[in-house]
Amino acid sequence: MNEKVIFFDIDGTILNHQNKIPASTKEAVKRLKEEGHHVAIATGRAPFMFKHIREELGIDSFVSYNGQYVVFEGQTIYENPLITTTIESLLPDADEAGHPLIFMGDGKMMSTIAEHPYIKESLQSLGFTPPAVDKEFFRNHPIYQILLFCKDGEEEQYKCYDDLQFIRWHEFSVDIIPAGGSKAEGIKRLIERLNISREDVYAFGDGPNDYEMISYAGTGVAMGNAVPKLKELADFITKPVDEDGILYGLEQLKLLK
Fold first, then answer.
1. Among residues 9, 200, 206, 210, which one is catalytic?
2. Is 9 an active-site residue?
């Protein structure tokens, strides 16, 4: 079998609805590596938000911040931070609308407000607590992604920023990344380093920030718990994460002997 690279989203794909890694997923990743395949993570999370997952699975290559920060075997190979002047313009607009922001850097995140129920609920869904406040954090650190906290549809007022892209991941939160950015763009950078063709790329995901990745991969796999549109884009639909979906999908695609 030719060498393949398999990318996994985290929430709803690697992690089940209890934010745990199923034993079958751990087994599947171990077997993939034993058979000589490359295994990587592709997520909207910041690197510091899934270090424990990388360590638990023994994975040291990843696409983070929805493609804006890419690491291959522990080495950073691509960075695409937001433009500081754009953030300077966005901040007062968000303040006026009453929408908190969280700036996400390479090693930590900082908030524009001390407490807000949208921040608390959104981050708790990932197993994190609200960060400290530093509205000037973006001036001295590269920011790869911003979290905007607002109700569904309220992000439309920011679409005047044509150099930004908005991806909703929670009822109360939206990822902001550079326009044109996506997990697919990050994957391109990683497979260039591996010298592996697009046809040998497999990607597993479940949410809206996986659309480009699933479409780009040689074989895009939607989890059984994926949103309907992703299932339409996928080449294969596996079982839900809570029903050993990763292991089942890999076996059905003949990636595991």
1. 9
2. yes
